[in-house]
Amino acid sequence: MDQSPVAVATKWFEAYSAGNFEEMKSLAAEGYTFQDPAFGKLEGERALGMYKMFTSTRDKTEAVWNVHEVKPAESDSQRAIVRFEAIYKFNGRPVTNQITSSILVVDGKVKEQVDTFDVAKWAAQSLGPKEGKH
């Protein structure tokens, strides 16, 4: 099995897109951490719990995750950079978020994920007025 950062990050996002939390859990390293502007830094079970919530509520939220690119990080041979789009409903509001994720892979497992996105655009969509309401 290819354990390169690109291969592991690709498998991670394939499992995420399929809503397969158990596969994601099997790909996560002990002490896995997640960080983004909305959730802050989550560690271990809290980080994985976020993905369990996302994958288990995807029918309700109509969530779709489209991966556009997975490539090696230029500055770190243990990282992959993933560009993807998250489309979902948050409290009935449609959200389309363009995200760049830096995935650290250690011994064939995802050790760290740091997501960045346009916070102002995300907040306007997720926290602004509902569609059709002005």
From TrEMBL:
Family matches, as Pfam families: SnoaL_2
Under InterPro entries, the record lists: NTF2-like_dom_sf, SnoaL-like
Domain called SnoaL-like: residue spans: 10-112
Recorded protein name is Threonine dehydratase
What species is this protein from? Answer: Rhizoctonia solani AG-3 Rhs1AP
